[in-house]
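Second attempt. The first submission of DNA-(apurinic or apyrimidinic site) lyase had a stray character pasted in from the spreadsheet, which I only caught after the job came back as garbage. Lesson logged: always re-copy from the clean sequence file. Corrected sequence (274 aa) follows.
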Amino acid sequence: MSRIMGAMPEGDTVWLTAHRLHEALAGQVLTRSDLRVPRFATADLTGRTVLDVTPRGKHLLTRFEGGLTLHSHLGMEGSWRVFDAGARWSGGPSHQIRAILGSAARTAVGYRLPVVELLRTAEEEEAVGHLGPDLLGPDWDPGRAVANLLADPLRPLGEALLDQRNLAGIGNVYKSELAFLARVTPWLPVGELPPGIPERLVATAQRLLEANKRSFDRRTMTSGRNPSQKLYVYGRKGRPCPRCGTPVRKADQGEAGRERPTYWCPRCQTGPTS
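This time the job returned cleanly.
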């Protein structure tokens, strides 16, 4: 039996991935270890006990006895899957496997992970110390998150929300949905947000991630009055806006080479559109 971990890797997905990995491996002694990245190909973690698996924004920290941590990131297409002993692995071809951590009872397999690195636990901050307050972490600080967002008043809201140095955990889905809920376009400079909106955006982001963190495939942003509609605008290009019926639009946002698809309602959301 496998447990799928990945798909739309935002902060809630990463939190649940860490929770499932911790449930499967914490307290277990590794009987198999295989890091399929050149830098750590010879590293051997077998015989070490897994202490815990902790999420940090969109990053995963798997800690082992002896002061070692495996740092991984799902990127856009990565996933971790857990298989019971003897089960057939499914998650992609073998050449896409980047990490294997196995105990006598279960094996965790990381597919298409863009980041896999082994570091000393005492040096974790070198990998994640740049991150802002974690929306689902014990360090969550809404005041600091708001201050970070407003530190560059000319920056478009969508880009500021995606910058993990401001607050950690928001991805492309939440970016588009939060802008819709705030009734502004993702291109509006954060310094032009109406009074009180930055605080409301941050509070809404934390509430929604918290509400969605225990499910991979049932992420819901809407009020729930229409069970078939879970998102307001994301992925709904050409479909009617749930508020006014205007067709939802889609465009890329971000620096060249790092553009992200962005959805918005041209009638309900005020501000520039590119």
